[in-house]
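User: Predict Cellulose biosynthesis protein BcsQ's structure from this.
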Amino acid sequence: MLVVATLSLKGGVGKTTVALGLAGAAQQHGVRTLLVDLDPQANSTIALDTAPTTATVADVLDEPRRSVLHRAIAPSGWGDGLDVLVGAEQTERHNNPDPSPKQLGRLRRALQRLVEHDGLLGDAVDPDDGGEDPYRLVIIDCPPSLGQLTRSALAAAHRAVLVTDPTMFAVSGVQRAFDAVQTERQRGNSELQPLGVLINRVRPRNTEHEFRIGELRELFGPLVLTGVLPDRSAIQQAQGACLPIQRWDTPGAREASAVFTLLLGRVLRSERARRDGAAPDAAPIAPPATR
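Assistant:
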């Protein structure tokens, strides 16, 4: 089971869009996935059209027990193969600015419960996965701040997708996110690696966007993913209809869907590398270049 956090420390860059797009790509390619909605706005939960639950991720962070986890996971309205650890506004009570190590470890402990079967998720366990993990991929949609919630996600994750947009504030936002990953590695999660920087909301033939993308590539090198997400209304339309972008049949949707397929491929290669004990298919951990 590979745990991937979608991370941005600058609001409004489309972090949830990336989490949803990756989840849709995983579902399309038969990768059983759990999306953890850790953002108190709970936008992923709304877009995924989840069934009602008697608990939420806030309750799981209160008590990371298997019984609570079971009550907080719901099937996605998108169809088979995608479940949701549902978000709620109450999750904000866990966003302490100075959390203890015990608080930071609660999400990791809860996700570890997923592999302790004993009837936790019933038929959620896929026998084709060797009977080991109910999910091949876990995606954590983080809030756009570096409090307890985001740090909890980094403490639980194996990989982090750093999401940004091509604006003048992009470089500092990515740098802060990169530093947060580095810090969490030093605090004890040695498995955590940045999977890459994904640039969202790119407009073609926009001089400012082209300049900022060049700036990001110069500073972060191969960490910047080749595919960039276009600024297309189809993405918002699909989310408004509670459908994955992969099922929204317009040219803009197909363009975005192709980027998410590329991202999924990078995720799965990283999963295989981690399982085989090889170097991950991601840029090496090293400080970005400075001017």
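The first strand starts at residue 2 and ends at 7.
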